Amino acid sequence: MVDAVDAIKILGGLLGKAGGSSGSGGDILGNILRGALGGGGSTRPGQGNNDLLGGLLGMAMKQFGQKAPAQPQSGQLQEQGGGFFKPDFGQTEPEPQIERQQANEQAMVLIRAMINSAKSDGKVDRQEGEKILKQLGNASQAEMDFVRNEIAQPLDVHQFAHSVPAGMEQNVYAVSLISIELDTNKEARYLHELAQCMDLSPQICNRIHDKVGAPKIYT
Fold first, then answer.
1. How far apart are CA 56 and CA 216, in angstroms?
2. pLDDT for 80
3. CB-based burial, 95-120: b 16+ in 10 Å, e otherwise
4. C-alpha span between 32 and 37 (Å, rounded)
5. pLDDT digit of tens for each residue in the chain (219 aa)?
6. In Å, how far from its chain's centre is CA 35?
7. Nearby residues of 60 by Cβ (< 8 Å), 6 or more positions away
8. Residue 14: what pLDDT?
9. String of b and e for 177-198 (b: at least 16 CB within 10 Å)?
10. What pLDDT score does 71 carry?
11. Where are the chain's structural domains?
């Protein structure tokens, strides 16, 4: 079923409609891709995954029919070793130079992050699930079934966090953050547990919260 699922298109739909505490997912994505965040933050290796994410998210928004946000000039990186996203999709080619299967797998990780966040304050009921599905636009049956299956899975933050590829930790945290309003203790506890499982420091988390305009969970 995975091969029939265009996770990049699904991600574009979810990001384009994400509300969160700080505006639309597209606005947040734009801030991220313009290098709003810097620094490493994870103790795990694998910066190469981050090198693909700028292109991946640009693809997602473009495929969903939204204009990808402006990027820094070619070769411009964020401070402190490449920063949060490395925007490498400013080429004139119709699609960034990203291996499609790997990009699709990364998109699935971010989709799971968004859906897990929706579950963090309790079970996603039928009405909430249908609301998520409506965000997908002209998704195929396989894509709808994929999202339904992810919604139906019990929330296991440890299992999910340990499935995140090295180098994607900050991206997963930020996408999780913009997917919720962060107005309950359950959501705050979920983000704290997620950060701990992915070895993200409170300082890095606070920086992400600052940049997306969300309340901090660490003082």
1. 27
2. 32
3. ebebeeeebbebbbbbbbbbbbbbbb
4. 7
5. 444 788 888 888 887 755 444 444 445 554 544 443 444 444 343 444 444 556 676 666 666 655 544 444 433 333 333 344 433 334 334 454 557 788 888 889 999 999 999 899 887 878 878 888 888 878 889 999 999 999 999 999 999 999 999 988 998 999 999 888 899 999 999 999 999 999 999 999 999 998 888 999 999
6. 15
7. 8, 9, 11, 12, 15, 107
8. 83
9. bbbbebeeeebbebbbebbebb
10. 44
11. 2-212
User: What are the structure tokens assigned to 155, written together?
Assistant: 């929330």
Runs of H (alpha helix) within the chain: 7-17, 25-33, 47-63, 100-119, 126-134, 141-152, 157-163, 169-178, 185-197, 202-212
CA distance 32 to 164: 19
**142 Cβ neighbours under 8 A, 6+ residues apart:** 1, 4, 5
Start-to-end CA span in the chain (Å): 44
**Contact status, residue 182 vs residue 58, Cβ threshold 8 Å:** no
What is the crossing angle of helices 141-152 and 7-17, to 10°?
70
Please give the full DSSP string across 20-46, using - where no structure is assigned.
TTSS-HHHHHHHHHTT-------SS--
Residue whose C-alpha is closest to residue 75's, from 60, 59, 90, 92: 90
What is the rounded distance in angstroms from the CA atom of residue 14 to the CA atom of residue 12?
A: 6
pLDDT of residue 184: 92
Chain-centroid distance of CA 60 in Å reads: 11
